[in-house]
């Protein structure tokens, strides 16, 4: 009778190992995310799906231009993580004025934005664990210019590779 159940037991063990492997991957390596808003247009469009890298936080550094996934800071109450581009790094002074971002007084070249920002922000000098994150669709993005600086401990992944739609598959730059 035990021989009769052996294939089912093997199948259940394989499923359990698969679920365990899946949990390890999405917890420590990365996972697929979908963009629900147009705040990152034209770089990432509504409905795009992309693979995120969680390992870079352990083995790399956050750089200007990285597109990061994070839990929005208080007072934002959202069940979904946010995705924005890192603009200001720790120790820098960031200001947005006259339709331009300035880092330590120097204009930042941003070929990826939808249009020039129509708001003022800063100047603000970032502490050791603070970042300024802005959406590429600057004037329609709920980002640092509205709620302030982002602490490093809220960042949990970086967007690295678009997997949907098929006609735009590739690295996210």
From TrEMBL:
It is found in: Cell membrane; Membrane. This is Signal peptidase I. Belongs to the peptidase S26 family. Residues 10-164 form the Peptidase S26 domain. CDD domains: S26_SPase_I. InterPro entries: LexA/Signal_pep-like_sf, Pept_S26A_signal_pept_1, Pept_S26A_signal_pept_1_CS, Pept_S26A_signal_pept_1_Lys-AS, Peptidase_S26. It is a single-pass type II membrane protein. The chain crosses the membrane at residues 15-32. It comes from Symbiobacterium terraclitae.
